[in-house]
Amino acid sequence: MREPGFVIQLDTPDALEHFWLSSQGKYLYAARGMDLCGRNTLLLPNQWVFGESREAVIDKVFRWSEAGIQCEWVQETHDDGYWHIPTLPEGWEMLNHLTDPYDGLDNPALTPQEATRLYQANIFDCMEFDTSCDVWAYRKGSMKRTIKEWRQLHKVATEGDLAC
Predict the structure, then answer these.
(1) Residue at 55 is within a domain
(2) Residue 153 within a domain
(3) How many domains is the chain built from?
(4) Residue 163 host element (H or E)
(5) In whole angstroms, what is the distance from residue 156 CA to residue 114 CA?
(6) 88 falls within a domain
(7) Which of 44, 68, 98, 116 is the 20 to 30 Å CA partner of 5?
(8) What is the pLDDT of residues 102-127, one digit of tens each?
(9) DSSP per-residue letters across 82-118
(10) Domain range for residue 17?
């Protein structure tokens, strides 16, 4: 059984760096709550989820295990169908459009559990590159750069506050 993701509040780049250095190597994936549109329904700003897999992170962010959510098969025609998520948090309905044939979610031979894990991995991959979302996803290899960039932004924001 895979280890579940876990949530931790890290409000500064120093806090993230301290956490990251103390747990270096254990967590391959992470997600961070952002407040870009004032509508974040999943994670608070700077609330982080860490996990050993993409699926564990997305499961925790969307609370799928807690809510008992699994993919369901939708049969459109005799030869055509797809997996989808029956219940999504408000504002995240677009995740049900991640069913292009290349990602495997049109395979009726998958079990609901396999389809759910595949869906979670696909969601993580999309969130990793779509920074318009209120949750950003990261891989282990990007954490040092993330800390450095956040530290630069934090410094600019702090200097701006002092200038007011």
Answers:
(1) yes
(2) yes
(3) 1
(4) helix 143-163
(5) 45
(6) no
(7) 98
(8) 577 888 999 999 999 998 998 898 88
(9) EEE-S---TT-GGGGG---GGGTTT-TTS-HHHHHHH
(10) 6-70+111-163
